[in-house]
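dude i think i finally got it to work??
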Amino acid sequence: MAYMSQEGYDNLIAELKRLEGIERPKASAAIAEARDKGDLSENSEYEAAKEAQAHLESKINQLKVAISEAKIVDTSRLSADSVQILSKVEMTNMANKAHMTYTIVSESEADLRQGKISIKTPIAQGLLNHKVGDEVEVKIPRGVIKLRIDNITVG
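look at this
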């Protein structure tokens, strides 16, 4: 089961509709076009189109599984008392005093450019269930960093 926001769930549904409604017909058309070019045993265009279709179908199936396992989190019931999924956490790196803000989201919603990190990342795991003012040591691939939680908001 994957906890996610309504927005994240809606994005998955939209992507599935796009893949099934637009990309799948394109893939079928590419296969038909390549097949019309004759001998399939030496038709690399046909093989490439079949491979692209298989990749597309795999992606569609993964999305269907993600949607079926999704559990939408009601943000009105979340608390800003401690860090949890959909918490927006403002923190300070105690070593270099750098300020960072991340929102902890499901794996499928993670987007570092938007400041959204997966709940499965070491930083998110290290922050979970901690409160404002807590200093936590988080083990990351490059070692251990010490973070102070400055603020927690929801949504």
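The first strand starts at residue 2 and ends at 4.
im so relieved honestly
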